[in-house]
Amino acid sequence: MDVSFLKIIFAFMAFSIVILSVLINLIESKLPVSIVQTFRYGKFSSEKKHFLVNYLEVPKHWFKHFYVFAAVWSTLGFVLVILAFVFKVPIPEFITHFLNMVALKNRRTSYNATTTTVVMFCMLIQCWKRFYETHYLSIFSNSKINISHYAIGYIHYFGCIAAILAEAPSPFTTLSVDHQSYFLINDINIRLIIGFIIFLWAFQQQYLANVNLVNLRTNKEGKVITYEHKIPTGGLFDKISCPHLFCEMLMYMAIYIMLWGSQIWPYIFFWVLSNQCESAMLNHWWYQSKFKMYPKERYAFIPYIL
User: Fold this and answer.
1) Phi then psi for 12, rounded to 5 degrees?
2) Confidence (pLDDT) at 173
3) Is the pLDDT of residue 85 over 90?
4) Which one of 74, 88, 117, 147 is most buried, counting C-beta atoms within 10 A?
């Protein structure tokens, strides 16, 4: 039986984050220090430290590294899609072999060339936006992250781009059925339009949220004046504690809508949903414990729901 490496890896990451989240949220005090320290990072990192785990930590600002990879990797993916579906240039055979290896050998396409192109464009601009934000906008403190978080960043973006290509029509798959292998305006449907609109809205709102967080640490000239955490206000921050995480989830949901019928993307979406949700809850609880006047009407992750 053929086994999809991408399905396995994203299912494993999603399952792991759910199990660890439940354990951390319910019985953290009874867990080994090494597990807690590995899971928590940044402002809600564990106060207790394990000497061995300390050697497995890297500076949080190393987040920048995998966004360099993501920007380059998504650009390569987008170029391949444009060459194949717009200019009808044959792709190298090793790419098909590569996709067979990370997905399935007998892959079937799940969406048309137009959808593939639009979704790959979405991933392209998101990866480059995150590259810009982490290199020229975000202000990192001296906190650290476990090297597993660092590695997962590479795995995530590697898998997302490969997953989109793995179910794209010919020439990326050899078993394309009833799907055009070139870009057609007529293939743009209501589901693609709705998904793209949701994506662009979340894309913009995430950027505004990140700018808001940066403004809390800088003066009008853009100079860093503090590394202390403050209560963000304005925009979606008036509704939820972590709009940047909510928007991240929303963008992947939008892609899920556009790639409806995909066999791999549901695993990616569930991984992103579970990861962003737990991060939002930890942030929300930290704000509530840190600031006595934190707005009680503010939700953690999803406006009016969670």
Assistant:
1) -65, -45
2) 87
3) yes
4) 74
Tokens of 220: 């009008």
Share of the chain above pLDDT 70, in %: 97
Which pTM value belongs to this model?
0.95
pLDDT tens for 1-45 read 467 899 999 999 999 999 999 999 999 999 999 999 999 888 888
Interatomic CA distance for residues 130 and 272, integer angstroms: 16
Separation between Cα atoms, residue 153 and residue 286, nearest integer Å: 24
Contacts of residue 215, defined as CB under 8 A and 6 or more positions apart, other chains included, come to none
Tokens describing residue 137: 């906008």
Dihedral angle at the C-alpha atoms of 241, 243, 244, 248, nearest 10 degrees? 130
Residue 303 contacts by C-beta under 8 Å, 6 or more apart in sequence?
236, 239, 240, 246
Higher pLDDT, 278 or 143: 278
